[in-house]
Amino acid sequence: MRSVLFTLLLSLLVSASAQAKKILFVGNSLTYTNNLPSLVEQEAKSRGLKVKTISLAHPNYAIIDHWNDGEVQKYIKSQKYDYLVVQQGPSSQSEGRRMLIEDGNKLQKLCEQSGVKLVYFMVWPSRKYYHTFDGVIKNHKEAAEKNGAILCPVGEAWKSYFENTNDYSLYSSDGFHPSPKGSRLAAEVIVDTLLENE
Fold first, then answer.
1. What is the pLDDT of residue 98?
2. Alpha-carbon gap, residue 108 to 116, rounded angstroms
Protein backbone atom coordinates (compact mmCIF):
# COMPACT_ATOMS: atom_id res chain seq x y z
CA MET A 1 0.00 0.00 0.00
CA ARG A 2 2.82 2.39 0.89
CA SER A 3 4.56 1.73 -2.42
CA VAL A 4 1.32 2.49 -4.29
CA LEU A 5 0.92 5.78 -2.41
CA PHE A 6 4.56 6.67 -3.00
CA THR A 7 4.23 5.96 -6.72
CA LEU A 8 1.07 8.06 -6.92
CA LEU A 9 2.73 10.95 -5.07
CA LEU A 10 5.80 10.75 -7.29
CA SER A 11 3.69 10.81 -10.45
CA LEU A 12 1.82 13.86 -9.17
CA LEU A 13 5.08 15.67 -8.44
CA VAL A 14 6.47 14.83 -11.89
CA SER A 15 3.24 15.98 -13.51
CA ALA A 16 3.32 19.27 -11.61
CA SER A 17 6.94 19.93 -12.53
CA ALA A 18 6.17 19.25 -16.19
CA GLN A 19 3.43 21.86 -16.35
CA ALA A 20 4.17 24.87 -18.51
CA LYS A 21 5.18 28.08 -16.78
CA LYS A 22 2.73 30.86 -17.59
CA ILE A 23 4.09 34.32 -18.36
CA LEU A 24 2.01 37.45 -18.83
CA PHE A 25 3.85 40.11 -20.85
CA VAL A 26 2.68 43.69 -20.27
CA GLY A 27 4.34 46.31 -22.42
CA ASN A 28 4.36 48.21 -25.68
CA SER A 29 5.86 47.92 -29.17
CA LEU A 30 9.24 46.81 -27.79
CA THR A 31 7.39 43.68 -26.63
CA TYR A 32 5.07 43.04 -29.56
CA THR A 33 7.60 43.79 -32.34
CA ASN A 34 8.68 40.40 -33.73
CA ASN A 35 6.25 38.81 -31.23
CA LEU A 36 8.74 38.51 -28.38
CA PRO A 37 6.42 36.36 -26.22
CA SER A 38 6.27 33.76 -29.00
CA LEU A 39 10.07 33.86 -29.32
CA VAL A 40 10.32 33.18 -25.58
CA GLU A 41 8.12 30.10 -26.03
CA GLN A 42 10.30 28.93 -28.93
CA GLU A 43 13.54 29.52 -27.04
CA ALA A 44 12.22 27.65 -24.01
CA LYS A 45 11.07 24.74 -26.19
CA SER A 46 14.51 24.51 -27.79
CA ARG A 47 15.90 23.91 -24.28
CA GLY A 48 13.28 21.33 -23.33
CA LEU A 49 11.33 23.80 -21.19
CA LYS A 50 7.59 24.40 -21.26
CA VAL A 51 6.27 27.96 -21.37
CA LYS A 52 2.91 29.50 -22.23
CA THR A 53 2.80 33.24 -22.82
CA ILE A 54 0.02 35.82 -22.96
CA SER A 55 0.70 39.33 -24.27
CA LEU A 56 -0.94 42.60 -23.30
CA ALA A 57 0.97 45.21 -25.29
CA HIS A 58 -0.14 48.47 -26.94
CA PRO A 59 1.73 51.23 -28.80
CA ASN A 60 3.46 53.84 -26.62
CA TYR A 61 2.12 52.39 -23.37
CA ALA A 62 3.88 52.85 -20.04
CA ILE A 63 3.13 50.89 -16.87
CA ILE A 64 0.66 53.53 -15.69
CA ASP A 65 -1.33 53.31 -18.94
CA HIS A 66 -1.83 49.59 -18.42
CA TRP A 67 -2.77 50.19 -14.80
CA ASN A 68 -5.31 52.88 -15.70
CA ASP A 69 -6.86 50.65 -18.38
CA GLY A 70 -7.55 48.04 -15.73
CA GLU A 71 -6.86 45.16 -18.13
CA VAL A 72 -3.75 43.89 -16.36
CA GLN A 73 -5.72 43.62 -13.11
CA LYS A 74 -8.38 41.53 -14.88
CA TYR A 75 -5.75 39.26 -16.43
CA ILE A 76 -3.99 38.65 -13.12
CA LYS A 77 -7.24 37.95 -11.26
CA SER A 78 -8.76 35.70 -13.93
CA GLN A 79 -5.89 33.26 -14.43
CA LYS A 80 -2.90 31.84 -12.59
CA TYR A 81 0.42 33.17 -13.86
CA ASP A 82 3.93 32.40 -12.67
CA TYR A 83 5.43 35.66 -13.90
CA LEU A 84 4.28 39.14 -14.89
CA VAL A 85 6.93 40.61 -17.20
CA VAL A 86 6.49 44.37 -17.39
CA GLN A 87 8.11 46.69 -19.93
CA GLN A 88 7.92 50.39 -20.69
CA GLY A 89 10.14 52.81 -22.62
CA PRO A 90 13.85 53.30 -21.88
CA SER A 91 13.10 55.37 -18.73
CA SER A 92 16.58 56.86 -18.47
CA GLN A 93 15.45 60.19 -17.02
CA SER A 94 14.07 61.02 -13.57
CA GLU A 95 10.41 60.84 -14.63
CA GLY A 96 10.92 57.43 -16.21
CA ARG A 97 12.70 56.26 -13.06
CA ARG A 98 9.79 57.43 -10.92
CA MET A 99 7.30 55.62 -13.14
CA LEU A 100 9.29 52.40 -13.06
CA ILE A 101 9.43 52.49 -9.27
CA GLU A 102 6.05 53.94 -8.25
CA ASP A 103 3.85 52.44 -10.96
CA GLY A 104 5.78 49.21 -10.75
CA ASN A 105 4.97 49.12 -7.05
CA LYS A 106 1.27 49.04 -7.90
CA LEU A 107 1.88 45.93 -9.98
CA GLN A 108 4.06 44.41 -7.27
CA LYS A 109 1.23 44.68 -4.74
CA LEU A 110 -1.17 43.12 -7.26
CA CYS A 111 1.29 40.29 -7.86
CA GLU A 112 1.75 39.64 -4.15
CA GLN A 113 -2.01 39.22 -3.74
CA SER A 114 -2.11 36.66 -6.55
CA GLY A 115 1.12 34.73 -5.98
CA VAL A 116 2.76 36.04 -9.15
CA LYS A 117 6.40 37.10 -9.48
CA LEU A 118 6.91 40.59 -10.88
CA VAL A 119 9.66 40.87 -13.50
CA TYR A 120 11.15 43.99 -15.08
CA PHE A 121 12.13 43.65 -18.73
CA MET A 122 15.07 46.07 -19.02
CA VAL A 123 15.06 47.59 -22.48
CA TRP A 124 17.48 49.93 -24.31
CA PRO A 125 17.57 53.51 -25.59
CA SER A 126 17.35 54.46 -29.25
CA ARG A 127 20.63 54.84 -31.10
CA LYS A 128 20.04 58.59 -31.14
CA TYR A 129 20.09 58.59 -27.33
CA TYR A 130 22.66 55.84 -26.91
CA HIS A 131 24.49 58.05 -24.40
CA THR A 132 21.62 57.46 -21.94
CA PHE A 133 22.22 53.68 -21.84
CA ASP A 134 23.80 53.71 -18.38
CA GLY A 135 20.77 55.57 -17.04
CA VAL A 136 18.42 52.98 -18.52
CA ILE A 137 20.34 50.19 -16.83
CA LYS A 138 20.64 51.99 -13.50
CA ASN A 139 16.96 52.92 -13.25
CA HIS A 140 15.73 49.42 -14.10
CA LYS A 141 18.07 47.88 -11.54
CA GLU A 142 16.91 50.30 -8.87
CA ALA A 143 13.23 49.73 -9.65
CA ALA A 144 13.62 45.95 -9.43
CA GLU A 145 15.54 46.22 -6.17
CA LYS A 146 13.09 48.63 -4.54
CA ASN A 147 10.09 46.52 -5.48
CA GLY A 148 11.62 43.13 -4.73
CA ALA A 149 11.18 42.11 -8.36
CA ILE A 150 13.18 39.97 -10.76
CA LEU A 151 15.23 41.79 -13.41
CA CYS A 152 15.70 40.49 -16.95
CA PRO A 153 18.80 42.48 -17.99
CA VAL A 154 18.13 42.55 -21.72
CA GLY A 155 19.45 46.11 -22.04
CA GLU A 156 22.74 45.09 -20.44
CA ALA A 157 23.05 42.19 -22.88
CA TRP A 158 22.45 44.55 -25.81
CA LYS A 159 25.06 47.03 -24.54
CA SER A 160 27.61 44.27 -24.00
CA TYR A 161 27.00 42.99 -27.52
CA PHE A 162 27.50 46.45 -29.03
CA GLU A 163 30.68 47.08 -27.06
CA ASN A 164 32.18 43.70 -27.99
CA THR A 165 31.25 43.69 -31.67
CA ASN A 166 30.60 47.28 -32.77
CA ASP A 167 27.64 45.71 -34.57
CA TYR A 168 24.31 47.50 -34.12
CA SER A 169 22.15 45.01 -35.97
CA LEU A 170 20.09 44.34 -32.84
CA TYR A 171 18.28 47.54 -33.81
CA SER A 172 15.82 47.62 -36.69
CA SER A 173 16.08 50.26 -39.40
CA ASP A 174 14.33 52.88 -37.23
CA GLY A 175 17.18 52.79 -34.71
CA PHE A 176 14.91 51.95 -31.77
CA HIS A 177 12.74 48.89 -32.20
CA PRO A 178 14.44 45.50 -32.15
CA SER A 179 15.39 43.63 -35.27
CA PRO A 180 14.49 39.91 -35.29
CA LYS A 181 18.05 39.31 -34.05
CA GLY A 182 17.54 41.79 -31.21
CA SER A 183 14.28 40.16 -30.15
CA ARG A 184 15.88 36.70 -30.22
CA LEU A 185 18.60 37.92 -27.87
CA ALA A 186 15.93 39.39 -25.61
CA ALA A 187 14.14 36.02 -25.57
CA GLU A 188 17.36 34.22 -24.66
CA VAL A 189 17.99 36.55 -21.72
CA ILE A 190 14.41 36.20 -20.48
CA VAL A 191 14.56 32.40 -20.60
CA ASP A 192 18.00 32.41 -18.97
CA THR A 193 16.72 34.61 -16.14
CA LEU A 194 13.33 33.07 -15.45
CA LEU A 195 13.58 29.42 -16.34
CA GLU A 196 17.12 28.07 -16.38
CA ASN A 197 17.84 28.70 -12.71
CA GLU A 198 14.63 27.33 -11.17
1. 97
2. 9
> Mean per-residue pLDDT for 119-140?
98
What is the pTM (predicted TM-score) of this model?
0.89
Q: How many Å apart are CA 71 and CA 110, to the nearest integer?
A: 12
Cα dist. 159→67, 100, 113 in Å? 30, 20, 35
Q: Do 84 and 118 contact (CB within 8 A), yes or no?
A: yes
> Do the bridges between strand 51-57 and strand 21-27 make them parallel or antiparallel, or are there none, so unpaired?
parallel
In sequence order, what E strands does the chain have? 21-27, 51-57, 83-86, 117-121, 150-152
Q: 154-165 vs 180-194: helix axis angle to the nearest 10?
A: 130
Distance (Å, whole) CA 147 – CA 53: 23
The answer to whether the beta carbons of residues 47 and 31 sit under 8 Å apart is: no
Let me know: does 187 contact 43? Beta carbons within 8 Å: yes
In whole angstroms, give the CA distance from residue 2 to residue 12. 15
**What distance in Å separates the CA atoms of residue 116 and residue 129, rounded to the nearest whole number?**
34
Cα-based torsion angle of the residue sequence 46, 140, 89, 174 in order, rounded to the nearest 10 degrees: -60
Q: What's the one-letter identity of residue 37?
A: P
